[in-house]
Design brief:
The protein is an alpha/beta fold. It has two domains: about 5-255, Aspartate Aminotransferase, domain 2 (3-Layer(aba) Sandwich), CATH 3.40.640; about 255-339, Alpha-Beta Complex (Aspartate Aminotransferase, domain 1). About 40% of the residues lie in helices and about 15% in strands. It has 14 helices and eleven strands. It has helices at about 5-10, 35-45, 60-70, 85-95, 110-120, 135-140, 165-175, 190-195, 220-230, 235-240, 245-255, 255-275, 295-300, 315-320, and strands spanning about 75-80, 100-105, 125-130, 145-150, 175-180, 195-200, 215-220, 280-285, 310-315, 325-330, 330-335. The strands form three sheets. Strands 1-7-6-5-4-2-3 form a seven-stranded mixed beta sheet, with helices on both faces. It has a two-stranded antiparallel sheet with strand order 8-9. Strands 10-11 form a two-stranded antiparallel sheet. The longest helix has 21 residues, at about 255-275. The structure holds pyridoxal-5'-phosphate.
């Protein structure tokens, strides 16, 4: 398979029905069956390529899903109306009452709140560990553990998850590894590194325009079929479908993701170095003293760089609250009112 994610998307040659350079947008909630038995068969998951109802599948979301599975090199993908919907539906599909999850002490705030405050209502227990400490990950696994959940680059500490080793640990225990790759699309291909499921908030880099909220789940065909099952699938029954008009917009933006990621990484490395020069305590995985800098190099698709996220530690809440304005003028960086 072509090694370059942008070319893999391009190679799909997704055209509109009249030869349009973009696939047509589906403006229908439901679909016509000219023969009654076709509807029944579609209900039972036969007839791939037939559409039943837009919450289940619709052609616009299918085009975007196909582009994402090409990017991620997974068998299948599913589009959701938010990153949280991708995360929560996947977890709810996998975990039943009495099950257990091992995750990082730091994840995106909404994910953390779901794991910490919401899942216990349904008797799913969660252990929070330092995900960079692989021994503590192993130790936290119990007989009822179903899943290791992590972010490839975590929010907000920018720790890098050792995906191949976490995948080995999961495989050895017969459990799943789910990776949120929101901060590092194209930089990491988690499924190739061993992850079973890859989830995204497409709200961030993938769409890249700050004009909508969306998500995606990439994984094995059997898992996506389960999610979409009309009688018991979490995604089908909880219903977080993305509107086809948004979905077609995201697909168009996906075609520039490779260029944007390279530039984000270039900008972030430049700013990280400047921040360090002016004496700020900065964390960026592209800096050589980042604890997982070498690990990141060993896993990343190098041409996309170290990503667009960096953090600065301003030491106290008070000082952080005083920062009024960070401006980037040409090649000058000024942080007010500290410097
Ligand atoms: C924003 C974010 C999410 C949640 O996505 P929404 O699209 O806002 O629902 C999940 N994970 C990470 C890492 C995020 O940054």
């Amino acid at each position: 398979m072509n090694n370059d994610p942008a070319s893999r998307i391009q190679d799909l040659r997704q055209f509109g029905e009249f030869g349009g350079v973009n696939p047509s947008v589906t403006d229908s909630s439901t679909y016509t069956f000219l023969e009654a038995h076709t509807m029944e068969e579609t209900f039972h998951g036969e007839h791939a390529g037939c559409f039943l109802y837009s919450r289940h599948w619709n052609p616009s979301n299918k085009y975007l899903a196909d582009a994402l599975l090409a990017m991620e090199q997974t068998e299948s993908a599913w589009i959701t109306a938010s990153g949280m919907a991708a995360i929560t539906c996947s977890i709810l599909e996998l975990c039943h009452a009495g099950d257990h999850i091992v995750t990082s002490v730091t994840t995106y705030g909404g994910t953390f709140a779901f794991l910490k405050n919401w899942l216990p209502k349904f008797d799913v227990q969660v252990s929070f560990v330092n995900i960079a400490d692989l021994e503590s990950v192993k130790k936290a696994i119990q007989p009822n553990t179903r899943l290791i959940y992590t972010e490839a680059v975590n929010n907000p500490l920018l720790q890098i998850s050792n995906i191949p080793v976490l995948a080995d640990i999961a495989r050895e225990k017969g459990i799943m590894l789910m990776v949120d790759n929101t901060f590092s699309p194209m930089i990491f291909t988690p499924a190739v590194l061993g992850a079973d499921l890859v989830v995204y908030s497409m709200t961030k880099f993938i769409n890249g325009k700050n004009d909508c909220v969306a998500g995606a789940i990439c994984g094995p065909q059997s898992f996506i079929n389960d999610l979409a099952d009309v009688n018991k699938g979490s995604a089908m029954l909880l219903g977080p479908v993305l509107d086809p008009i948004r979905s077609s917009g995201i697909l168009k933006n996906l075609h520039t993701l490779h260029i944007r990621m390279k530039q984000h990484s270039k900008n972030a490395l430049y700013i990280a170095r400047k921040f360090r020069e002016i004496g700020l305590k900065v964390t960026y995985p592209g800096l050589e003293d980042h604890p997982q800098h070498e690990l990141m190099k060993s896993m990343m698709n190098e041409e996309f760089g170290f990503g667009g996220m960096l953090t600065i530690d301003l030491k106290s809440h008070e000082i952080a609250n005083q920062v009024k304005f960070i401006s980037l003028h040409l090649k000058q960086i000024i942080v007010y009112p500290l410097y």
